[in-house]
Amino acid sequence: MKIRLLLTCTLTFTGMRLQSQQSQNTAYARFIENKGQWNNNVSHMAKLNGGELWVEKDGMLFNFMHHKSLEKIEHARHGHIALNGSEEIRQHAYKMKFIHTSQAQVSGNAAEKDYANYYLGNDPAKWVSRAGISKEIYVSNAVKGIDYRFYTRSGNLKYDVLVHPGANLNDLYIQYEGVERLFLKNGDLHIVLSTGEVVEKAPIAYQGEKNNTVDVRFKLVGNSVFFETGAYDKSVDLVIDPTLVFSTYTGALGDNWGYTATYDNSGNLYSGSIAFGAYPTTVGAYSTAYSGVSVTAAITKFNST
Description:
The structure is a single chain. With 305 residues, this protein is mainly β. Helix content is 4%, strand content 55%. It has one helix and 22 strands. It has one helix at residues 67-78; strands at 5-14, 31-33, 42-48, 51-56, 59-65, 88-98, 105-118, 128-143, 146-153, 156-163, 174-177, 181-185, 188-193, 196-207, 213-214, 216-221, 224-229, 238-245, 256-263, 269-276, 284-289, 295-302. The strands form two sheets. The protein has a 19-stranded mixed beta sheet that branches.
C-alpha cells in the first residue's frame, strides 16, 4: 500500500486586500497558460488578493500592490474619477525560488471549461486565442525525485511538494528573493515586504491518514528555507503541503471593474470592464506612476451556465 507523508504549512498575507465582493470562501486561483502573451519565462499566471502570481520555470513570482494604492484606484474607479497620471502606485515583487533540475516540466491540470483571449497591440500575429485555464499546476522532476503541485482550497493557495522514494529531502529548499526580511517566530515563517507581511504558518506533517502525524519544522538559513522532519518511512512518498492563507484580505481572487453589460438573443451575457496587472522583471519594492500601470479593456462572455 502506498503511504504518503504530508507536511502542511499556512501562509498568511497581511497589509493587502482586494476590491471584489465575492465570498473568499468560494474563490480560487485560476491559472491561465502562457501562449505568448507574456514573458517567455512565465508558464502560467493567476490573480491573487491584491496582486498576481506568475508561475515561472524555477519558482513562483508574487507581485502585490500596497493596500493604499489599491484603495486609491478602487475609490477612483467606483466613483468614475480620473486619476492623475503621476499618481504613485506602490508595489512589491518577491520570488519563492524552488531549486530544480533543467528537466523540470510544468503543466496545467484540472482544466476549466472556459478560456482567455489576449488581443494586445496592433499586430494580429501576436494575438493569443483560447489560452487554457487550470485549477492546478504540476511541476514534475523539479528536483531529482521531487515534484510540485500548486492549487487552491477554500480560497487559500497551496503547494504540495512530493518527495518520492530515493529522493533526498536535504536537496529541497526554497530561496526567497526580493524580500526585506525573513524570521521565524513560534514556528511560523515571517516574510516582510514593503507592502505588508507574509506569514507562513508552522508546517504540519502526516503519513497515510491525517491523524498519523509526523514532527516537522522550518529551518531558516539566510534567505533559504529547509524542512526538518522527525522519523518517517523513506521507502514511500513524502508530501510537503504548505498553504497560503489570505485571511486578512477581503474579496475574491481578481482585480477588474465592470462598467457595462448586455445580452444577446441566445441567452449569453456580456460585460465590459478594465483589468490591472503587470509582470515585474525584477524583485523587490518599486513604485510606478498610474499611467505606467498595465490597464487593459476586458470583454467577458458568459453562457447560460
